[in-house]
Design goal:
The structure is a single chain. By secondary structure, the protein is of the alpha/beta class. It has a single domain (9-141), classed as HUPs (Rossmann fold, 3-Layer(aba) Sandwich). Helices cover 40% and strands 20% of the residues. It has helices at residues 17-28, 50-53, 59-73, 91-101, 116-122, 125-132; strands at residues 9-12, 36-42, 83-88, 106-111, 137-141. A five-stranded parallel sheet has the order 3-2-1-4-5, sandwiched between helices. It starts with 8 loop residues before the first strand and ends with a strand. The model has no long low-confidence stretch (mean pLDDT 86).
Length: 142
């Protein structure tokens, strides 16, 4: 029995070990995996990207590749039934918007713990999600 049962939990996945640890935490908060949505957000391709110029890569193939990679990584029985979503755009905005569209009760995500110049240059997806989310956000620090 989960200690804080939730009906809809969103977990952003960037394929890091920390993100999958956050997913495992989310599974502890729900009655079963069908209440969890794992979302991966791909950046939009620039018109100058080689794959776009040579028409070798399109959004459909990128989405399918990401979905296949997620399904492979989430093949364990404990993940059976969770929803996989792949979006495009700014990760912070897309995760917050997806959570709102699903009427999520919680977003669970990992923080990579960047500080100083690294955080300033790279930005913080976790911070952006916290600011934009309509629901509570649980940030798991490593």
């Amino acid at each position: 029995m989960p200690w804080l049962p939730k009906k809809s939990v969103i977990v952003p996945i960037d394929f890091s070990d920390d993100a999958f640890a956050a997913l495992d935490t989310a599974l502890e908060l729900v009655a079963d995996a069908s209440h969890v949505h794992a979302i991966h957000v791909l950046p939009y391709m620039e018109v100058t990207d080689p794959g776009v110029i040579w028409e070798a890569i399109d959004d459909d193939s990128r989405r399918k590749h990401a979905e296949d990679a997620l399904r492979e990584r989430l093949a364990d029985a404990k993940y059976q039934g969770l929803t996989i979503q792949v979006g495009f755009g700014d990760p912070g905005r897309e995760v917050a918007d997806y959570a709102a569209s699903q009427k999520a009760e919680l977003i669970v995500l990992s923080s990579h713990g960047r500080t100083g110049l690294s955080r300033l240059l790279i930005g913080s997806v976790a911070e952006r999600i916290v600011r934009l989310a309509h629901c509570p956000v649980l940030v798991i620090r490593k």
